[in-house]
Amino acid sequence: MFYWMTDAQQREFAAAQQRFSAYLNIRVLRGRVPDVLAQEAPASIAFLHLDLNSAAAEIAALEQLYERMVVGGYLVLDDYGWHAYRQQKAEEDPFFRSRGTTVLELPTGQGLVIKTAA
Hints:
Blueprint: H1 7-20, H2 35-40, E1 45-50, H3 55-65, E2 69-77, H4 86-97, E3 104-105, E4 111-114
Parallel strand pairs: 1-2
Antiparallel strand pairs: 2-4, 3-4
Helix pairs in contact: 3-4
């Protein structure tokens, strides 16, 4: 799938690919959430860190990825407790409640979820 990028974005993408090219277990992808995640996400996830600065994007990512997390897996929500990103908390809390869990708000402003059930 082709995604249009400005010249600056193309340079940044190429730089990111180059930076991680030595790591065989890392793929640098471009695309929109959740489309790219539906195509490329691992089947099993033990640690997930979301920092998308958008409630809609984070919920879309969670819908693709949360069920792939293993029991005992850790999820860090980067902006969970910050007032500037309150919409993320407002939308993520019901997402987790519907799955029988809650988010621990950390002093850093991040949120922590430890998946306890499949």
